[in-house]
Amino acid sequence: MKYEDWIAKNTPLKRVSSLEPYRDEIQKLVNLNYTHNQIADYLQEVRGLEISRQQVQKFLSKKTTKEKAVQADKSETPKVSLEDKFKGFL
User: What whole-number distance in Å separates Cα of residue 45 and Cα of residue 49?
Assistant: First the structure.
């Protein structure tokens, strides 16, 4: 079975947050210094979501963790051999 065939037959089981469609709006509110309580209120009043401050906080912390992982991947340090590292000592 090929990779493409397997993907066509299987759907990912990973859950997607109900807040994901509102990621841009949430990020704009964060950038404007709104609190997690205020963002939860906005999502309840404007978007009709049953959401808590804790859920907003958890969503934002996961996003931050993912961004840090991506940044770490992009800023890989160059590989230096042991010989080059200790050249002056030998």
Answer: 8
CB 56 within 8 A of CB 40: yes
Length of the chain: 90
Phi, psi of 9, deg, nearest 5: -90, -20
Largest pairwise CA distance in the chain = 69
pTM of the complete model: 0.59
At 20, list the tokens.
Answer: 């994901």
* Cα distance between residue 1 and residue 7, in whole Å: 10
- DSSP symbol at 3: H
CA dihedral sign, ordered 42, 43, 44, 45: positive
> Model confidence over 37-61: pLDDT tens digits?
999 999 999 999 999 999 999 999 9
